[in-house]
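Q: What would this chain look like folded?
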Amino acid sequence: MSKHSFLLVSIGVFLGLFTGSLVQLYVPEFPVASAQTVAAPKPAQLIWLNQPDDDKFSQIERQMRGFDTTMMEVGYRYDELVEAVKNRNYEYAKYQTEKIGHTISLGIERRPKRAKSARPFLDVEIPKMLSAIAKQQAEILDSAIHSLHEGCIRCHRSENVLFMGSRFATIQPIPDDMHEEIKRFQDLLNDEFIAKADRANGHKLFTQSCKNCHSIFGEGSHTGPNLQTLPMSDRNYLIKSIIAPNATVGFDYMTQQFLTHDGKVLTGLILSEDEVSLTLQTANETLAIQKSDIEERKASSVSVMPEGILQKLTHEEARDLFAYLQGSEQTQ
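A: My prediction, written as structure tokens:
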């Protein structure tokens, strides 16, 4: 036996004796069992191993979790990717982008129902990001990471998850009177009543009340979310979102409030901004504001979407609007 082999064997024997001593040292003493004492159960980790194969696979699936573990890894890698882009570390940016794509692909395998929302991100945004990295041009790279961020948000919105990385939505309690209003409209807008709706009139009402901020069926503004990316088939969700728009406000729709030198208070979403001016979308109009005119600026948790939209409509108008929003195609 060589000296090297002898040394390895000696270390193995020593570790075996040492760990054996530790086991003896730390085994607790239990009282002697009486005749009535129930035998100790098998360790939990061994119980499911002795079950039929189908049960084993169910346990393995449960332990692997679903898409939430995918998003935990994607969140970490996204933060790393952003830092790589800031530092123009193209090689590391490529590595993290590829890993994000791979992680999402595995997540879709575990949870195929997420494919509808995740596939556009995987098939469009990931290749776009990799192409930008390959060009190694700062301006193109910055544009691509911005597009990737927007793709993440679209995917989250389609699953009704209003956060992106560490940027969470603000969640506020719904006042009691709004709870009552929500219940009233839930009772009113039942299937039988909706079946009598005039979707063409609903289209007209959308144009008057919603089109300035939202889009649907390829028509409208992109200031607010595209309504087709939201769970519009859930009528209760839709009623709550319209009546209590401030209950949940996504990070990207948190408004900014401005006090100008002439005493005006303006609240809205910032559409664009540079060193000299900014463009603000209020609930009713788009404004260009010179920064030299601003006295005070602060973030607000109030949604740009106004309250009281449904309350201004008759029951029949509310019915027509919901029928249009929950429809499957455009109407004239």
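The two ends are 91 Å apart (CA to CA).
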